[in-house]
Amino acid sequence: MTPPIRTLIVEDDPRIAALHRGLLEGAGDFEVLGTAETLRVARAMAETLRPELLLLDVYLPDGRGLDLLRELRARSERVDAVLLTAASDIPSVQDALALGAADYLVKPSSPERFALALDRVRERAALWKQDAVRQGHLDALFARLPAPPAGLDPDTLHRVRAALRGGGAQSAREIGALLGLSRVTAWRYLEHLVEAGEATAETDAQGIGRPVKRYRRA
C-alpha cells in the first residue's frame, strides 16, 4: 500500500484550514501533519515535520507563503505545493510557476476543483518514485490536459481517469460497473485516454469466450 502524502496546511483563516483538512482527510491518501497560521510557524513546522506537500496561502500575517516555498527550493527540499489563495496577481502566479507548484487555486475554490488539484499531486508523487518516465507522463506533468472532445463529459472523463489509477488492467465492463456507466460509455472514455497517450490497451485472450480488452494507465 502506498504511504499517504504528508501534508502541511499553511492558512491564516482557521475556517478555511478546517475545510481543507476535511477534504484532505476525505481523500484518503493524504496525511495532515498540522496547520500553520503564520510564515514563522510554517517555517518551523516544515523544518521539523518535512512535509511532502504544502497547501499554501500567499498572504500571511507576517509574509508571503511563496517565500517558504522559495526557501525550501533553495535547500533542495523535495516538497510539492498547491497554492490556495485570494492572490490572483501576475507576480504571484509567475512565482508559483517558477517555483514548480503543482497547481494554483484562487479562493473560493470548489471541492471539485480542489479534487483535481489533488489528482495532479498524486500524479506527480507517483512520477517521483519512478526511475524513468514515458512521454505521456511528461505531457501530463508539464502541460494541462486538453479539453475532451465533443460528446465526452469532463467530469466523467476525470472519474474514468481516476479509476484507472487504482492499478492493474481493467476492462470497459469493470470500469463501467465501478462508476455506474454502461460498458459502451466506459469504452468510449477509455479509448479516448488511449488515443491521448494516458492509457494503454491490451487483449486478454485467456479464459472462455471472446478476448477481453483491458486498459491501464500509461
How does the SSE layout of this entry go?
Layout: E1 5-10, H1 14-27, E2 30-36, H2 39-49, E3 53-56, E4 59-60, E5 63-64, H3 65-74, E6 80-85, H4 90-98, E7 103-106, H5 111-128, H6 135-142, H7 154-164, E8 170-171, H8 172-179, H9 183-195, E9 199-204, E10 212-217
Parallel strand pairs: 1-2, 1-3, 3-6, 6-7
Antiparallel strand pairs: 4-5, 8-10, 9-10
Explain the overall architecture.
This protein is α/β, with parallel strands linked by helices and 218 residues long. Helix content is 47%, strand content 21%. The protein is built from 9 helices and 10 strands. It has helices spanning 14-27, 39-49, 65-74, 90-98, 111-128, 135-142, 154-164, 172-179, 183-195, and strands at residues 5-10, 30-36, 53-56, 59-60, 63-64, 80-85, 103-106, 170-171, 199-204, 212-217. It has a 5-stranded parallel β-sheet, sandwiched between helices. A 3-stranded antiparallel β-sheet has the order 8-10-9. Helix 4 links the parallel strand 6 and strand 7 (103-106). Helix 7 (154-164) packs across helix 9 (183-195) and helix 8 packs across helix 9. The chain is elongated.
C-alpha termini separation = 20 Å
User: What's the count of strands?
Assistant: 10
The portion of residues assigned to helices is 40-55%
- Please state the structural category: alpha/beta
Quaternary structure classification: single chain
Largest sheet: 5 strands, parallel
Strand order of the largest sheet: 2-1-3-6-7
Mean pLDDT: 85
What order do the helices and strands follow?
A: EHEHEEEHEHEHHHEHHEE
Count of helical regions:
9
Shape: elongated
